[in-house]
Amino acid sequence: MNLNHLQYFRVLAKLEHYTQAAEQLSITQPSLSHAISSLEKELGVYLFEKQGRNVRLTKYGRFFLTYVETALNELELGEKKLRELASNTQGSIELGFICTLEGLFVPTLINQFLQQDDYQNVHFSFAQGESNQLLQGLKDEKYDLILCSYVDNEPDIEFVPITEQELVLIVPKNHPLAHQDEIDLVDTVDYPFISFNKETELRHTIDDLFLKSNTKPNIICEVEEDSVVAGLVAFNYGIAILPRVTILNQFDVKVIKISNPNPTRYIYLASVRNKSISPTLMAFKNFIIAQTKHELLK
């Protein structure tokens, strides 16, 4: 089926006039008539019928037009996306990042990148989630890049460390531990503990901290969102370990530094290895690595 014939058909269906359609398409009227006749012959039905000096779609034409418009629109969108993909200065980037990443971290990176003259026409889409969920989306091409925790047994994923987070203990303001500014995890085991779901990477990190201190927390509930954890602590439901992020300032909790074991958590830029990417995406990836490199060298 000739693609030009489908484009001619769409224009004629809109204008319902051969002369006007031929002028818009910059072809002769006989050429347009021949193209429509060829398309009708190929399909085995009449797509148009005469109505005075004009034409109108038959029921077959109306039926076929829906599919032609869908197909041509998709092709035009694909052409547009392909041009963006090959462009050095424009396009769109799908970025996923973990919910517990510092609130201003991603907006600051994006703002700094877009301030460069070459990339002011780049558009971003964002999604948040848990590391394993984001990694699956990365492999399914739902995201171009993600900011997440390191996950073992992912040979097709490249992980580049870009920043680190300090994990801290949070307790209610009236809690027996609230008078302390620094604490060893062994001193927390007698108190009810709120943890993350076992499927989350942060839960594994926290479990490793207790394992290193040869202790086991008294877990009374498991949740997924860091804001929910902080809220439960504020209402005196238990104590918890969270990354030291600004969201903690919104809750009535005491933040306590963990002195033992080392409570550092690294955040990584993850991408699919050996995958062809656009020049714009490569520029953004290199920008993140360059901008965050000094943070890890402090």
From TrEMBL:
Which CDD domains does UniProt cross-reference here? Answer: PBP2_GltC_like (cd08434)
Q: Which InterPro entries does the record cross-reference, listed alphabetically?
A: HTH-type_LysR_regulators (IPR050950), LysR_HTH_N (IPR000847), LysR_subst-bd (IPR005119), WH-like_DNA-bd_sf (IPR036388), WH_DNA-bd_sf (IPR036390)
The answer to whether the entry has keyword Transcription regulation is yes
Keyword NAD listed? The answer is: no
Molecular function (GO) terms for this protein are:
DNA binding; DNA-binding transcription factor activity
User: Keywords, A to Z?
Assistant: DNA-binding, Transcription, Transcription regulation
Task: Tell me where on the tree of life, at the top rank, the source sits.
Answer: Bacteria
What protein name applies here?
A: LysR family transcriptional regulator
Species whose genome carries this gene = Turicibacter sanguinis
